[in-house]
Structure formats: C-alpha cells, structure tokens
Design a protein that fits this description.
The structure is a homodimer. By secondary structure, the first copy, chain A, is mainly α. Chain A folds into 2 domains: about 130 residues, Ribonuclease iii, N-terminal Endonuclease Domain, Chain A (Orthogonal Bundle), CATH 1.10.1520; about 70 residues, Double Stranded RNA Binding Domain (2-Layer Sandwich), CATH 3.30.160.20. The first copy, chain A, contains 9 helices and 3 strands, in the order ααααααααβββα. In chain A, helix 2 crosses helix 6, helix 4 crosses helix 6 and helix 6 packs across helix 7. The longest helix of chain A is centred in the first third of the chain and has 22 residues. The radius of gyration of chain A is 22 Å and the shape is elongated. At the A-B interface, helix 2, helix 3, helix 7 and helix 9 of A face helix 2, helix 3, helix 7 and helix 9 of B. Chains A, B: This is Ribonuclease 3. Chains A, B: GO terms for molecular function: double-stranded RNA binding; identical protein binding; metal ion binding; ribonuclease III activity; rRNA binding. Chains A, B: Belongs to the ribonuclease III family.
Chain lengths: ~220, ~220
Amino acid sequence: MELTYHFRDPSLAILALTHRSAGKPNNERMEFLGDALLGAIVAEMLYETHPKASEGEMSRLRAQLVNGQALAEMARELELGDRLKLGSGELKSGGFRRDSILADAFEALVAAVYLDGGFEACRQTVRGLFADRVTALPRSSKDPKTRLQEWLQAEGWPLPQYELVGSEGEDHARIFDVNCVVMEPMAITAAGRGSSRRLAEQDAAEMVLSRLLDTRDSP
Amino acid sequence: MELTYHFRDPSLAILALTHRSAGKPNNERMEFLGDALLGAIVAEMLYETHPKASEGEMSRLRAQLVNGQALAEMARELELGDRLKLGSGELKSGGFRRDSILADAFEALVAAVYLDGGFEACRQTVRGLFADRVTALPRSSKDPKTRLQEWLQAEGWPLPQYELVGSEGEDHARIFDVNCVVMEPMAITAAGRGSSRRLAEQDAAEMVLSRLLDTRDSP
C-alpha cells in the first residue's frame, strides 16, 4: 500500500509523524482533525456501498474499519513506523511498533493531506486507502434479531424477549410498537416500531445491539 | 437563523426532514452521514480558532457545540419542526418538539446539503450556522490541572495526587514522567510526560479528565 498523495508542504507530513514524546509541536491536534475527517469520508463510502444498511449497521461497519488496530495495520502497510519522530524514551521502548502511536500518526496524516491539498485530495487519498477493505465488507449482513441472538449466545447470556406493546393507525397503514427486553446480566429494554410486527422487532433488536456495543466500547 | 443553502434537488431536503415514524425511506441513514460531516467541519473550525488547544480540549469544545440539545436548539432556530414529516403517532404526541427528532433532522439536513452541493457548500453552510457559537466559546481555557481540580471539587471528591515517576534524557532535554492518581470514588491513574514536571502534571491531568468525562458520557 502506498500514499498516492504528494505534499506541496512536506513540513505538514513531518508534523503528522511527530509523536508527542518528541516534544512540541507534535501530531496530537492533527490527529483530532484527521480522526473526524476519516470518520466522515468512510461514512460516505459506506453510505454509497451499503444502500440498504441501517444507521446502526453503517456505524458498526465503520467501527470495524476505523479503529486503533485497523489503522495501525494500515500505518504499517504505509511503513509509517520508519518515519515516525519519537522521543528517546519511546524510541528505546519500540514506540514505532505500538498500535496507538501508529494509528494516531495515520489519522494525523489524513489531516495533513487535508490541510495541504483540501477536501477532495484528502477524500481521494482516504478512498484509495480504504477501497479494498470496504469492498471486503459483507454486502448483506444478517438481520438485527439474528445478530443480537448470536451476540448474546456468544456471551452465554439468555435470549431476549419481544413484547408487542401496541399498534396504531388504520389497517392498511398500521404501525406496530414492540419492546425488546434483555434481562441478564444487565437489564436493557428498547422500543422499536415498524409496519409489521417482525419489522418492529428488528428495529428494537437493532437498538439493543447498539446499546450493548456502546457499553462494551466504553472504558 | 436561516439556512443559506438552496437545494438543487429539493427531494433531498424533504428526505432529511422525514422521521422514521413516517415510514421508509426516512432520514436515518442521512443522519449517520450528517453527524460525521458535522464532526469534521466543526473540528476544523476549532482547529483554526483554538490553535493552542490540546486534542482533549478541542474534543470537549466540540461536544459542547455538537450534542443532541444544542443541535435541537439550532433546528428550532431554523424552524425545522414545522417542516418535519412524522408518522401519526409522533404527530399526536408532539414529536416535532422532541430534541432527539429535531437534532437528527438537523444532522440529516447537513448530509442533504453535502449530497446536493458537495463538500464546500456543506462546509460553508455549517460554518455559517456555527460561526456565532464558535466565537462565543472561551478562547483560552483553564489549564488541565485547574479544570480537573474544579471538576473533582464540584463532585465533592478528593483531589488528585501527582507522583513523579522518573525522568530521562540529558539535562538540556530532560523528559519527566508523572502519574496523576484519583483514588475515590473510582480509582484512575494516568501517565503524563513533558519537558518540565509541571507540564507532565498537566498532561496527566488532561488524561484523567478525559477518562472521567468518557465515563460520564457512557450509558
């Protein structure tokens, strides 16, 4: 893998590869900007390639593509480790191999391309880097009820209950309200709605899944 | 406040204002894209206006500008509530006044501008909408040690301890390692480093602050 972008101002690329252990200025502020740009550009890719995916599904797919480990891997493919500027302590302890330092440098480099060449240059660069990974994503993923069930089973937790709460509207346009309830080991109830009971259940399962995943991600 | 952007394809604006209670297609997928774009464009604004702010500080400032309540307020100023497309249930229960529905519509509208007019149009629109709010942000915020202390005092928690762990490097380029330790009501230790003991303490305090805030935000 190769960075196809050529910097007009190479000092931006150097700053992007300067870890905070090397002093100031360093890539920390750029990392903030790059992380946000990466999130937006990959969001757009998924929006295009997964026209049927729900918001929650796209959000999970993005987390699969854009996380510390995945970005560190991409940084290694770009051989950023060799070009990092590290303080002497990090150098001795092999900081150039550490996932978090590599991932941060990758994000900062995305910001550097933006600052140097503008959004379209940054977008094309990111799209190029992620193209194969996006193509490799599952096209049609399993429905939320199935995914929730598999997730709970993998954890050895009891399966959820679906409760019909009510329905409203005329017969030809009825809307169903369903709760999905997980009791153990933590109590989660989420409401879903849809034009059929099954769709309302899928909707509620999706909500529970995203709450479970949020809980998992938090420190 | 007014949306200065005029849609070439008004159906995108209508879709952005269609809540899922009105059926499919609705604005949920657009909301995902809009949320990401908003994050990137506001990140860039803060990157420019707060050249001294750390990553953690910019991240907190952004959360102050881009959150459900703030976006709902902006949606109200744009009078989006009157133009929302809601299902009959949400209509009856006053969904057009609900923060989450309004904030989602605002985010979706940002995506609609992007899809209709491209990044530069979206960026200018968002910058116009956020300009006054960004200007109103505190310019030079307090240092992390002060903010951590104030935060802990506001909660009635004991103050943190700073421990010098060590230092390395030649005298003219010494790097200090410091731990910031919060014991109660939850134990948090974070490492910081810097070219002086004070800077290392600020760095460690910043880490503890962001972990405390992360904990607070999680469900």
